[in-house]
Amino acid sequence: MTYTNEEKRNIINRINQGELIRDLCAEYGVSRSTLYRWLSNYDKSAPGSGEQDVPTVKEYNILQRRVEKLENVIAILKTVDCTTHASLKEKLTELELLHGQYDVHTLCEALEVSRGTFYNHILRNKRGNAWFEKRREEYRILIREVFDEYRQVLGAEKIRMILVQRGHQVSTKFVADLMREMGLSSVRSTAKQDYLKLREPEKKKNILRQQFSTDKPNQIWVSDVTCFKLENRYLYICVILDLFSRKVVAYKVSRKNSTQLITATFKMAYELRKPEAGLIFHSDCGAQYTSHRFQQLLHEQKCIQSFSNSGKPHDNAVAEAFFASLKKEELYRKDYSSEATFKQGVASYIEFYNTARPHRTLKNMTPCQMEESFMKSS
To answer: What is the Cα–Cα distance from 233 to 51, expressed in whole angstroms?
Structure first.
């Protein structure tokens, strides 16, 4: 059935006067997506009788945001495999698949689900935690690539626009959250601070320069921190690996990514290994590793600090590779019921990694076998 422009205008006027879209859909026998398209076209053309006032910039921006929201609702309705009349379970399942691509308010409005119900579903969905974290990890890589490709000058909104152009539908909040987790911020917002840091006499040096080999243990240690979302909170894992054997010599799990986490992990490694003076300790330029407290600790133990270049994760590839293995082979495969079971899983995997998992770089020996072989030959 077709409708004249006058009929469409009357329906839109009834919506603007407060009538529910679902009631009008039932009365006229049209779909919600059709009504939203009419609304979108109406906003763009601003039809009506008489002379129209020229909108202010503020009014124009409000209208533009409204059109964008309606277009998103239409896109959601075209994507999902259910209607607003489906069961709550079906609607929550469909919304879960689109979580992160659109803001929660628009998602819930499209299928007429309350935000509280949706948030409770996400938090209680034990199956979804690992899946969401895996998806977030994939987008961390994409965001980092765009951030570096555009000389680290773009913020969350512009990175989102580029990702959308490349076929990845994400929300600005989703991008901003991941950038905050990775410690990424536009250089324009930190340009002065970065300039002043470059003027400091003590510059952060990359001694390692991606030379990931050494001829004996306790010459070079590499370290990094990663996070994993467990239910409604993040847990942080700090590891230190010996570059000679790729062995995890110490690790800690904490609820906070703090200097305390880094120093505690280093002290554990130092106590267990007792390296000689001149040990090179390599990490990224995170605030914890560059803190006065941690640098003073390294100085007291006569260690030499080395840093990855900013925005160059491959400069710390050994630690990055370990975390990739940990997540793919352990964390993404399990459903942890508590923080205690999560810590048990990490401990079990590191034991497996050190004593049973062969490494191609080590000629298919395990880290422990590599160190035992060195001890026998020395």
So the answer is: 55
Q: How many residues does the chain have?
A: 378
Pairing of strands 220-230, 304-307: unpaired
Which whole number is the average pLDDT over 327-337? 89
What's the maximum distance between 2 C-alpha atoms anywhere in the chain? 95
Supply the pTM of this predicted model: 0.50
**Six-digit token string for 254:** 């904490």
- The single residue listed with the structure tokens 């819930």 is 108
The tens digit of pLDDT for each residue in 245-268 reads 999 999 999 999 899 999 999 999
Instruction: Report the C-alpha gap between 243 and 222 in whole angstroms.
Output: 7
For the stretch 48-72, pLDDT in tens is 444 445 556 567 678 888 888 888 8
**Lowest mean pLDDT segment, chosen from 50-54, 95-99, 145-149, 187-191:** 50-54
β-pairing verdict for 280-283 and 220-230: parallel
DSSP SS3 for 99 = strand
Phi, psi of 302 (to 5 degrees): 60, 40
Contact between residue 100 and residue 164 where contact means Cβ atoms under 8 Å apart: no
Q: What is residue 369's predicted lDDT score, i.e. its pLDDT?
A: 94
In terms of Cα–Cα distance, which of 250, 252, 226 is closest to 332?
226
Which residues, including other chains, have CB under 8 Å from residue 259's CB and lie 6 or more apart? 287, 288, 291, 293, 294
> Any residues with CB less than 8 A from the CB of 292 and at least 6 apart, and which?
none
Q: CA-CA distance, 151 to 236, in Å (whole number)?
A: 28
Rounded Cα distance between 209 and 232, Å, is 38
